[in-house]
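fyi for ur records
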Amino acid sequence: MLTMLIVVLLLQAAQPNVAAKEFADWRSTQPTESSLGDLYKRYSGHLKQKGLSESEIKTVFLEIERDRWNRMFSNPAPSFNTAPNAFLTEVVKTLKPGRALDIGMGQGRNSVYLAGLGWEVTGIDISETGIAVARKSADAAGVKITAINTTMEEFDYGVNQWDLIVATYEGAGWREKAVRGLKPGGIVVIEGFRRTPETPQGASFDPNELVRMFLDLNLRILRYEDVDGKPDWFPQASRVIRLCAQKPE
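which gave:
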């Protein structure tokens, strides 16, 4: 049944939703050298001119992103790193397993890894295809994960629920609600791009931006790096930003 579900989802991923198709049609009229970030900004303006409200535009972009990630995760030869994030593997070496939340779990590379170490893992993602692949990967590894198809804005983080929160190559719009959900003494692990015109807006950060964000939330910064490296989502080396912070006990 699970294999059949994945086949169905992969077939669905091959069919763009209405919002994604309309964006693709509009994109075909734009300069080919435009970055995705620039295209999104211009398309947002295009939708405003058509009379869409801010909430309607947000819904449109959610569907565009859902379609993009479904297609990404349905690729049998992915261009991204499918191994667990190297920074995360370093951090958890010294941690006692507990409850972990993986924000933007994708195909489950980090969730399955943590579950194999004994963590009780919940992963969230907007991609139905990613969720299905993550569940299959967990079954193949003989571990259990809870995979939820939702957005980081809609997910209920609770209060004092998580010993570890992971967000690799995601935005930080979840941070305030997620920090409330973090247990005292709990750890946050983040990795993203150093922001340039070429990097994805949501997964990119300016120098010290993450430090300021989490200091403002009264977290203790355990480790911060702004280094040359090979990002999980780029084939070439570029600047990578990493942060590990702890909620006071």
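The chain is about 40% helix and 25% strand. thats all i got for now
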